[in-house]
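User
Take a look at the entry that follows and flag anything odd:
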Amino acid sequence: MAAADMNNSGYNVLFLCTGNSARSILAEAILNKEERGRFRAFSAGSQPKSAVNPYALDLLARSGYDTSTLRSKSWAEFAKPGAPHLDFVFTVCDNAAGETCPLWPGQPLTAHWGIPDPAAAEGSDAEIALAFKSAYHMLKLRIDLFLALPIKKLDRLVLTTRLKEIGRSDGATEKALHVDI
């Protein structure tokens, strides 16, 4: 995606998950904190939960993130007129990768970065918290790799390939290893 194809005020990134209560929320918070003045992150879900998962909020708060604006929201908010122009859309759960997404204006680049769902973890509070910490670290790794890409120097095909490779990083779900969205 050559620089002329991108807006000059930075890149808008949407992280999608079915419930928008854990993985996509974590990714939104991480990218907004690490963005280095180049990105603005959002998250949404096809069937958003009524609230953000408390384990996600606790992990982010204990890690120094501002959680005051985080909320579970529908992806329909980003398909309406007046919504932010999206440059990148990443699915972080296998269910969202298999759903028919809205048509995003401007044809953003897409990739599947599926990781295991920490909200599905069972066991003690410590075991569930560990699942969230693991998801956080997998997402942080992917976002760090994304931030290291020389986006303005890569053409659309090469950038798309790199984004898909990031999705196949350590901890990727089986579907993420084989999906080609």
